[in-house]
Amino acid sequence: MSVLYLPVCPTDCSGAVAPVAFDDCVPELHWGEVSEIYIVGFDPDFVPFTEGNITSLAEWLLRMDQEDDDMIRMLTVIGEFTEAEITEVPYSGDRIAIGFKTFNLPFEIDETSQTNYEFLLNLECGGHFRIWFETSDGVRYGGLEGIEASVRLNLVIPRERTALVKFIGNITWKSLYSPFRNVTPF
């Protein structure tokens, strides 16, 4: 299960309705496409980011050394964060329990160098990972500790000579809530 921030939920039967903000003149919009995924092996001794250093460029760069196996790797991808699969369980009193959501982040890597191919082979060993992902407009998801997730990556060689060889992947995890987000320092 992913380590995520929890909203303050009511402890009685009332529904939680948090404040909203809409602006006809200057709306805050965000653009699509997951463009970067940050990944590191899941280590229970991982030192989480703090509120102050999650948005620090220097802190991220310190944690992204390519020479150390325990460091965060940045993948340049084309991806999307799709709608979560939700389990609904009916129970007494015409009520419905909403269970854990299964989140999916399908992505493609189109730079298939030998180094990246060895990365693919290493992922085929399996395991759990800690990930963050970032959209093209600079919003990063994953919070202080990242998201504990499973990562699948496969080689796809197209039939056409004019098409690129790609690594096609999917990241999945289960959680009750959507991931925490912040503005990227990059």
Description:
By secondary structure, the protein is mainly β. The chain has one domain. Helices cover 9% and strands 38% of the residues. The protein has 2 helices and 9 strands. The protein has a 6-stranded antiparallel barrel. The protein is globular and about 55 Å long.
Task: Using brief descriptors, characterize the structure shown.
186 residues, mainly beta, 2 helices, 38% strand
Order of strands across the widest beta sheet?
1-2-4-8-7-5
> Percent helix among the residues?
under 10%
**C-alpha Rg, in Å?**
19 Å
Bin the strand percentage: 35-45%
Separation of termini? 28 Å
SSE sequence, one letter per element:
EHEEEHEEEEE
Low-pLDDT residue spans: none
Class computed from helices, strands and strand pairing: mainly beta
Q: Can you describe this structure in just a few lines?
A:
With 186 residues, this protein is mainly beta. 9% of the residues lie in helices and 38% in strands.
Write the layout of secondary structure elements.
Blueprint: E1 34-41, H1 57-62, E2 73-79, E3 85-91, E4 95-109, H2 114-123, E5 129-135, E6 139-141, E7 147-156, E8 166-175, E9 181-183
Antiparallel strand pairs: 1-2, 1-5, 2-4, 3-4, 4-8, 5-6, 5-7, 6-9, 7-8
